[in-house]
Every structure is written in structure tokens, then in C-alpha cells.
Amino acid sequence: MKLQPDSTSVQVITAYGADWVSINGERVQHSVLITSTGLRQAWGPARFADLQPEHFVPLAALGVELVVFGSGAKLRFVSPAWLQPLMRARIGLETMDTQAACRTYNILAGEGRNVACALLLEAS
């Protein structure tokens, strides 16, 4: 699906598919972490089953108010114990399927919120 955001100065997800996203027009086909302040880096493993608690630790150091976690093609939750670093840093985490996470991140970033998006992109 192609997304057409209003004019914005933040990093946005401009399109997505089953196992890819386009960030500011550049196609990405691996799990990725982005922030509304411009950070973009590879994140997490290639499959939900390979996620570990240590994948959530660096999210607590981002200094954001909220992390939107895209869990892949379907909604899946990680163990609440894995989110302890985020809770200690007083950072919220919302879990949704990756496509919903893309849309939610764009809305929040477009509102000027200090938000991160951790997207699990599983190969088909």
C-alpha cells in the first residue's frame, strides 16, 4: 500500500508490503528501527520466533516517549518481562501488526511526537 503523507520534515514510511517498507522513498527489506528524529538502523532478527529480551534493551536508550512495535504480518505479543527496560525508562510500547504500526508511526511522527518504530519484517 502506498501512503501519501502531508508535507513533513520527519522521517516517514511512504509505502509498505508484506515483507518490506519504504522509508522516505527508500525500500527496506529487513527488520528496522526508525525514530521521528531521524535515526534509522537494522533491528532485531528476521523472524518473530527469534526475538529475544536483548532486542528491546536498546529501545529504552532512545529517549522517546513511545515505541510502536510492528510484530510482523499478524499481531503477536512478547513476554511482558522483556519490556522491563522500557518500563524503567518510562517509555510506552504499543504492539500491533507491522502494517498498522507503519500507519500509527506516521500519524504520531506527523503530529511532532518523539516516537520510535521497531518493525519486524519477516521474509515471505
| Rg calculated over all Cα atoms | 13 Å
Structural class: alpha/beta
Strand order of the largest sheet: 5-4-8-6-7
Number of strands: 8
What share of the residues does DSSP label as strand, in percent? 25-35%
Distance between the termini: 16 Å
The CATH superfamily is known as MTH938-like
Task: Please provide a written account of the structure.
- There is one protein chain.
- This protein has helices spanning 84-88, 98-110, and strands at 13-16, 21-23, 26-28, 32-35, 40-42, 66-70, 92-96, 115-119.
- It is of the alpha/beta class and 124 residues long.
- The protein has one domain (13-119): MTH938-like (Hypothetical Protein Mth938, Chain: A, 3-Layer(aba) Sandwich), CATH 3.40.1230.10.
- A 5-stranded mixed β-sheet has the order 5-4-8-6-7, covered by helices on one side. Strands 1-2-3 form a 3-stranded antiparallel β-sheet, covered by helices on one side.
- A hairpin with a 2-residue loop joins strand 2 and strand 3.
- It is globular.
- It starts with 12 loop residues before the first strand and ends in a 5-residue tail after the last strand.
